[in-house]
Design brief:
Elements lengths: L2 E5 L8 H7 L7 H14 L1 E5 L18 H16 L3 E5 L12 H12 L5 E6 L12 H6 L3 E3 L8 H11 L2
Helix pairs in contact: 2-6
Length: 171
């Protein structure tokens, strides 16, 4: 049995409060990274990127060719994961079969169906309403809602999210 985190980045590992404090720079909030690291360590989690930033990654954490801005972000994220000893194992697919081409929940569902065993547990961390934004949901996707931890873009990943993750993984 394994534990997985489907991870968005904007509004989860960075947040508006932190970004306003560093103004001319960009970065990931060390507090948010600390909470992610704690979840990963305490529950032996594997991380799958579901963020739109996944387009700049290969599953082996190497950077794909993209715009120079995206390459810098991808390098920062890869270095952050490596330094925090976060077990990054993959990315969701790029299919946009759904409402207005926005299908994050479907992408996560397909990854689960393809890569996870029935005994595996998972959480989905995102600051956006990926269920409401999908337009329509299959029954399997409706059941996934109980695995969803929504962060606030103002603060990102907090201890409150850790508590919710603990409850899901300890079920």
């Amino acid at each position: 049995m394994s534990n997985y985190i489907f991870l968005d980045l904007d509004g989860v590992l960075n947040n508006t409060t932190y970004l306003m404090s560093i103004l001319d720079e960009w970065g990931l909030d060390p507090k948010n990274i600390s909470v992610l690291k704690k979840i990963c360590e305490d529950f032996d989690c594997k991380v799958v990127l579901s963020s739109s930033w996944r387009r700049d990654f290969n599953p082996d954490t190497s950077v794909r060719i993209s715009s120079s801005y995206n390459i810098e972000w991808a390098k920062l994220i890869a270095k952050t994961f490596k330094d925090a000893n976060i077990n990054f194992v993959g990315i969701t697919d790029f299919s946009n079969d759904r409402y207005l081409g926005w299908d994050r929940i479907g992408q996560i569902r397909r990854y689960i169906e393809k890569h996870l065993d029935k005994k595996d547990k998972y959480i989905i961390i995102d600051d956006e309403d990926i269920f409401g934004g999908a337009g329509w949901l299959s029954n399997k996707e409706k059941q996934m809602y109980s695995h969803f931890i929504r962060t606030r873009a103002t603060y990102g990943l907090t201890e409150d999210a850790y508590d919710k993750a603990r409850k899901i993984f300890n079920k």
